[in-house]
Structure prediction request, 363 residues.
Amino acid sequence: MESSHSKFFYMPEVTLDRLSVLVVEDNLFMRVLLGNVIRSLGVEQVFKCSSASSALNQINKVHNDPASAGISVIDLIVIDVVMPEVDGNMLLRWIRSAASPDRFLPTIMISGAAGFDSVRKARDLGATEFLAKPFSGLSVADKLMRTVFSPRQFVLAPQYFGPDRRRAPSEAVLERRILEEEDILVVYEDSTPKGIVEANVIYFRFQNRLAGKVGGVPLSGIPKLNPEIIAAADSKIEAVAGDYSDWALKSVRGLSKSLSELSSGAGQSAKLLAELNNVAHELRGQGGTFGYPLVTEFAQSLFQATTDSQVKVTDNHMEFYKAHIDAINVVMTNKVKGDGGEVGQSLLKGLEAARKKYAATHA
Prediction:
């Protein structure tokens, strides 16, 4: 989704301390880190859930029994897209459904899979914003400030409910060609329900509650947080870089174990490939955050190579998977940061050679 800083301006009085944010992330390491980064940006009430189902329960609990939940309202929810059992997109679908106690809840989807298709799917399910992994203090602040200070009207149409999906002027022109003025009903907070049932499309234009909560609606543009606050958030990321290295090496050992079981036929290949794919997804979304862009690149390639869990695994598959795992292991064992210089180039060339060999044997 759109991410430009050209309209931002500095308003010292703007703080996010009155906001309450729910973070939904199945990976413990990233859940704690993301919560700490958001708290460093000034948000005092940060709650965390490890699964979509627990988040669903938390949302209902806040609505039905706020005293027990310890919070009267959830202002914004950050949801990891890829989670086991019930993924982030399914949670988003529920939030925007009639079963949800707050269909208008602002949502920031976060994922290491930030390609066009992933972003479009989240948008079509009603996401407010999309945050790509790896992230920084600035990118998290960007999405928070956009969500608070630049909300879009909500749209109820036959096949959609959520923030207005139109981003480009051409999209708005196209819609005007399809819809006539009499087809659209605009609802404000003080509107009466008259005509809602008959309307083909409804626009909900409410007051900006979140902006009012944190300091008021700016005359124009999106305010920018104090650079010192951004730096404090980045310091939280830097502080756990060593922990990330340990976590990544542990993950590499897990990859190697799954690969050995796959090679020996000791386990179900579909399940083991799914495990490889899941760990690769986690690694690709985190490497760049901690200064290991090579890990992100290698893990992205491994993720793509293991997406089809039903493939018949051959010796060539095994060599290809192993080349990725070995490359990631070298980077993390030797703490090869940035582009890695000569070591990085050597690893990239080695992986490219493995890719060409694999492609040639499967042509």
Remarks:
- The radius of gyration is 23 Å.
